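For the sake of transparency, this paper describes our internal protein records without simplification. The record that follows is passed on verbatim for readers who wish to inspect the format:
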Amino acid sequence: MPPTSLELSTLGHRIRHQRVSHGLTLDELGAIVGVAGSQLSLIENGKREPKLSLLQAIAAATGTDVTDLLSAEPPNRRAALELELERAQQSPVFRSLGIPALRVTKATSDETIESVLGLHRELQRRERAAIATPEEARRANTELRLRMRAKDNYLPEIEKLAEKQLKAAGHVSGALTHRTVSIMASQLGFELIYVDDLPHSARSVTDLENGRIYLPPASIPGGHGLRSMALQAMAHRLLGHTPPSDYADFLQQRLEINYFAACCLMPETASVAFLTQAKKDRNLAVEDFRDAFGVTHEAAGMRLTNLLTQHIGIRLHFLRVDGSGAITRAYENDDLPLPMDVTGSVEGQVVCRHFAARAAFSEQNRTVEHYQYTDTPAGTFWCSSQTGRTSDGEFSITVGVPFDDARWFRGRETQKRAISTCPDESCCRRPDADLTARWEGRAWPSARVHMQMFSPLPRGAFPGVDDGEVYAFLDRHAQG
């Protein structure tokens, strides 16, 4: 493989350093090694690659070794500054500006180079901070969702990695315990530490230098969340993640760490055995799967999207919908007609009011799953919905399948049936004609403003995370 321009520049700097250190001009060294001084100038400026025989001659003339000349380390501070500037001026960010590169000469002071480098570093920082526009973020999320749909939401490499880590930690069966998660962390060289001053913008913080993973207080209700956060933090290391290069990379990493955590909490081998038996009994149910592994209803529903198609042969959909009917999370490979914007994004779109995901909010008993068949333009779907509430408001979790596959699920005998003709606006998006005639022009509702309309897209290498807050936190605990 031919050397890069940066490697040639580093080599040239090292040759110049040795020449100048020995008090030789270009012509004087050229006479010793048998080439013109102009040829040496091209080599020293990184414009030409020298032959090995010439390098050996230069090394002999300057009393050094060829390996020293070929070192990737700049020979001195000045060379390091010039190489960093060269690298910065070759970056796509700088080249996109159309500004001529600064030509460094002997007369260019170190202070001048450092000042220009400071501007380049700030340019790079701002480029990383403005990691995506809202439209870019939506498109990146849509592309990721479609890629995972094509794979039936199944990532075999991460499945195998999770089972390997679980086996190494001694986990055999049943719900994954906090102790086993701690053992898994220890085997990676990390200690789990629960603190009550975690930066508000971070779910967890990993101290790579001191081998610590900081998590919220263990007293927070819902142990599943803490196990999952610890597993996600470990996943970054196991999967070899580096700081995300753009928003799409950030989303991909987030998907992978969530996937790894789910694989550990609901291991593939045990989960498939459980689901296979439940299908044989015609008694598949999200709530049973949830309780068998001690996870949340949402986690169990999402895990079904990884395994049901790949191992059980059932196509399905998953929806998390907030109290207003807006989708906050979705997956489908069964052709359920979902609302989407012009970019193909479904998050934030309002589902049909006749879908079980919204109808469940009107049920009197919210503690059990609710079942419904829904006729749509794409066919009939059976759905199971469970509602819940957080500090942000109520939500529903729905898992559904095409009509023919309902026979494998508990709740298939439900008599509840609805009809949805969305995206036809007459289905549920257009007011009743009689009510419109009665009230149009006679009503003036005060709209509830959603603050996210005015919130900028999360910025930073890790979107939404306040780096300054995180660094201050780590420094505080490293000294404690």
